[in-house]
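mind reviewing this stuff:

——
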Amino acid sequence: MNIANTSQKGKVFMTCTMDKVFTWENVYPQHIVAFMYSGELELTFGKQTLTFVAGDTMLVPKNQLTRSIKKPLNGEPFKCVTMALSDEQLRKFYLNHSILETWAEDISKQRPIKPHPLLQSFFGTLLPYFEMQDDIPNDLVDIKIQEILTIIDKVDKRASSILGTFNDIRKIDLEKYMEEHFMYNLPLEKFAFLTGRSLTTFKSDFKKIFHKTPGKWLTEKRLDLAHFKLTTKNQKASDVYLSAGFENLSHFSFAFKKAFGYTPSSLNN
């Protein structure tokens, strides 16, 4: 039996998936802090994947393109609680707290919140609220968000370099971004937004850099990635089409045969 349930509680919500692997791509408009109660989460930023299990706390920066694979594990459902942090709440908090401004690595692709007993204890107190029939009152949600920000600031100051920074999306290196994110199945409008461009400017800049239209380039890159996975990792078409950026298996199989002259399934024979 497969059950997928999301209980919305203001800015705090629970996601629980029973006996089912669920994959999705998303760009959050707010910073997200989440805690794993059970199951496993594979979270991919660009070409890097981090794996989280029970007891882990994760931080997903806003406007960060991610792919999530949520899995039940060891007979337990995937279960996590997620807190969306608004800029208003963060600005209020960091008026009275310092921000770590220098960090050598791309912290958003590391683990900026280390495990700590205070985090385990805090998220343990949230579980009873999701057994209630009524929503958590908004004023209590605000208190809980201020509490988790205080704990995070105490246990891992690195997170402040993400949570305490309020830059708008700016025009970034288009070539680098697309090489790292071509395998995400997004409309061109979203790629344009995430690279700080209008759709018209995005298409124009893209043609100057890659000498192809975005659609043609994306299809070729995704097919090459899928071909690599099929031939070197002995994976099946059903295992690779989503991770290569295709929306469904039939479209992937059609495009693959058109490009290479044989079906992806023939590589597994």
Notes: The longest strand covers residues 31-38.
